Each structure stands twice: as structure tokens, then as C-alpha cells.
Fold each of these.
Amino acid sequence: MPTNAAAEADRAAEVVPAVEPRAPWRVREIRVVEHGVLNVRFVDDTEGTLDMRSLLNGDKVIGTVFEPLRDASLFAQAAVHLGTVEWPGEIDLAPDAMYDEIRAHGVWVVG
């Protein structure tokens, strides 16, 4: 008897629950404020700002994984995946370091 691969895939998705990060330093949601700036909310509802403008506008970014984020359209594609801020091209940020700075100062200035 033939099987339908799409039906199998759908059924598997129903069985496996979605991963919900629970560590307080995992990112729950983000909002792009402007090029280089994100508002961030963590699992424990800590909120603050990630400011990458200094990094993206300086020379230190050249040759790093973050250099492509100088393109505003790419920066705007920021998303949360498994509690981490990510961009296309395997670019991401350490949520624990971001959390510590935002919890202490309300902002994490990267640069």
C-alpha cells in the first residue's frame, strides 16, 4: 500500500511539540527599531535595546560575520529562532551576553 510522504510529515509535526525555550536569558521576541537597533524581550519578560550601530558603522566589522548586516535590508530580517536572535547567513548573537547587559543597563551596545 503506497504512503503519502506529505501526510507522514504532517503527522510527525503533530507528535513532536514545538521547542519552547525556558531559560530566562532566551529571547522571546524582537522588534527592529531602525537599522542597527532592536528592541528585545526575553523569556522572563526582561526588555531592553540591542544597539549595533557603532559596530556596523565602524571599521571593526570588516571581515567579520556581522559585516553583511551593514545592509539595512538584511538587518531588517532579524528573527528569533530557539531563543536566539538570528539573521540569514548563519549570523546570530549570544542571548546570554545580551541578557546580562540588558538586565544590568537596559541596553547592550555592541561595537
Amino acid sequence: MEMMKNALNWFEIPVEDFERAKKFYSAIYDFEMPEFQMGPARMGILIYDVKNQGIGGAIVKGAGYVPSKSGPKIYLNGGSDLNIVLLRVEQAGGKVVLPKTLIDQQLGYYAVFEDTEGNQISIHSAA
């Protein structure tokens, strides 16, 4: 088996109300989310380093995309300290489900929030 550099290549977060979700993710990451149409799906791209082959993802509204608390678990990058992003969650209309929690000193921290669409999303940072 080939050893992959990353386990994740791309991810898509299902949304019901695209404008509401775009506003939420733009607010918690403090950026203007670019969007485009890909076939029948409307996509909003989350911030990542494209030039250095960073791993990206998007919010997506379209057939077959159903928000859920029990769907796949993904961990968004919380930057140098996930609290910077996490502290914006409730102001943007989401809910903090699990506050910043130490995994261990080597693995860092994680937290869980519920977005405006009902998805439970985890976030990770080293500090």
C-alpha cells in the first residue's frame, strides 16, 4: 500500500441554508468566503493554502447533501490556537458543544461546535 502524505484530500460540509452557512463560516474564520457553482451544487470554499498544496474543503448545498450531527467527523484546522475561531462560533449563530480540550501534550487540543446547519464539526490546534 502506498503511504499517503495526508489522510484527507478534500471535504464537503452539507448545508441547508447556503447564505446562513456562508455567513457563519466567514465570521468564525474572519474571511470572505469565495463561492462557485459546480454542476447543480453551490459551493463555498473554506480558507486554506492552495499554493502550498494545502488540503481544502467546502460548504455545499445541493441534492444529496444533508446536514447531520451524526455524519462523518472532520477536524478543521484551528490555526495556532483554536480558541480564536471557537470564540466566534456563538456570535456567528453556532453552538459550542465541547470547549477547548487537551488531547495530550504531543497531540494538542480539540473542541466541537455545531454550525448553523446542525452539523457537528471538530476543530484542532497544537496549542
Amino acid sequence: MATTLTIRLDDELHQELVSVAAAQGVTLSELTRRTLSSLLTGSADTDEDARTGRAATPTTMRTVERHQLAMLHRILGHLVTGDDDEGDREHQLGLAKIIESGYVLDYDDVFAPIAAELPVQDARLVMDILEMFYFLEWSFNKLSQEERDDLGAEVAFRVRFRGFDFNSRREGRLHGFAKYLIDNGKWEDLAVYFDRAHDGGNSHMPMLGTYERMLNEFNPIWRDRIRDMTSGRQFDARLKTAEISRIAGAFVHPYNRGK
């Protein structure tokens, strides 16, 4: 059910908002709804973001923002050598010219490198996945050879991180954040799964659904561990054989689903 919200604006502010809405090709009501929605979610994602993985290119900027951004590109133009991602001097000066001239249609050239924001829930999901596989593999390696043999080769396969599917836009974004974390010293034991021998972490098949099912089993087990620690009981991070088997049992090969 939709609810109507009535607010009072002075004439000057109302006219400014009408101008912004017109520049973005939306009604004032739609502009207000988007702005309030982004305030609650912490994200201003649009349909374009979901489709392309890029941040939506602004169709208007305040004059002071244009001035500051153009100056930064002109400064960068005097610093670049042409051997890096920022291009050469002429490229940077060209971007400055686009901004100074207000060529909105070419703003895509200026903002092309800017990706859409990674939602907080996706970032936390990546961290949960890495945490799970770190403790899964570490616990499995701590088992005796006899215990590992009892679990079998299939479990040994399932406790290893498989990467993310680069053919999926969302999984590709999750991979980028996972690699960023590992490159910055987090979960470094899993870095091997991002090397050339593992195609840089490309699973070549969708894995997110499988990881989420495994997390549904891992998270309650891990919460119990944390509860033990906070209540003063002895903390043992190692997963038991039955727990490893339970988590691994949630692994479903992406191409076998529904069979």
C-alpha cells in the first residue's frame, strides 16, 4: 500500500528540485522517492547499475563540483606519463574539457572507471564465505589421515574454495572484493585459489547458491563456538568431523541441481 507524504518547501528550494528532476528526466515525486530510498538503503543504485555493474553516470553536477573535478583532471594531466591506467596528458585534459563545458552526453567518458557500489550485504557475504572456507579447510587438514579417509574424497573436494563465476556479473563483483581482501592480508591462506593455476579464482560455473547453502549449515555451528568463547567456556575453533561432513553435505554441484 502506498502512502502519501506531504512536505513544505520554500519557492527557491522547490524550483531547484524541479530543475534537478528535469535534468534527470524524472518527475519531482520520483526524484524525492529515489533520494529517500537511497538514504534508507545507503545505496543509490539504479536499473543501469544492476545491468552494467557501473555506477550511474550523473546527468547533472553542481558548478562547484564540476570546477573541482575539472581541476583535478588538469592537475593529473601534468602528472601522468601515459604508462598507467590514467592515460596521457591529452586524455586528462579532454576529460577536464568535457566537465568544464557541461557536455552531459559525454560524462560517460569521465565516469566510466567508476563501478557501482558493492552493497554491504554482498560485502559481508564474501567475508562469511572466506571465513567458512578458511576454517573448513584448516579443520579438515588437522584431521588424522584415517579421519580424512573416512570422510572420503568428495568431502575433501567440497571443503576447498572453488572461486566465483566470472560469467555472472554479481559473482564477478564478489570475486573482486574477495581478492581485494586477500591482497590486503585477510584470509591469506586462501590466496592460492586466486592464482594462475586456479584461473585467478574463476570457478567457470555459478557457485554462490552452493556457498549460501553451506553457510546455512556453518553459521549456526560457528555461532555456538562464539557463544562458548563469550561465556567463558573453552574455545575450540576446530570443526569436528561430523560438522565438516554436515557443511560439506550442503554442497550441491551447480549442474546437478534438481536431479
Amino acid sequence: MDLRLNALTNSAVNGLNPATSQRTQRTAMPGDAFADSFKTALQNVSASQAKASELQTQVQLGNPNVSLEETMLAMQKAQIGFQATLHVRNRMVQAYSDIMNMSV
């Protein structure tokens, strides 16, 4: 499971969308790459939690094809991913609060 966020490219920073050569109604914004990366990371965390939950159910049902070790490993990966996501969220909320409390 890869939870790394991709770095912004120069074209993303400049607000250009390299995937489309024609002008669209909505121009890509600099934060779009970050938003897409964050959305993908959240989807990966959600998928790992769903996998861990499914493996846990299979172990409880006594499925001989699912090992307890595999289940525990999947649960730990899901927990670490969730904790990392929670820390990122907390940092983003703190940054937003700091910006909103700045005097102009």
C-alpha cells in the first residue's frame, strides 16, 4: 500500500492541465493536483480498511484460506494509514486556523 502523495508538477503549479491540450470551461487550479492526490490517498486508506474488515470477517467465519497473520497485518496497515490521514487532517485544520487568525 502506497500512501505517499505525489509532488506538484510545474504545470500543476502554473494552473495548466497537461492532460488536455484544448481549453476547457474550467481551468485547472494549482490545488487540483494536491486535491487529487489527497483524494487518492483517502481512497487507498478506505480500501485498506475494507480489506482488513473483510479478512477479519473471514477469519471469524473460519475460512481456512485466510490466515490470522495476514489479517493482523492488514489491520495494522489500515490502522497506520488511518492515523497518518488523521495527522494530515489535523495539520490542515491547524494551518487553516492559523491563516484565518492572521491579521491583515
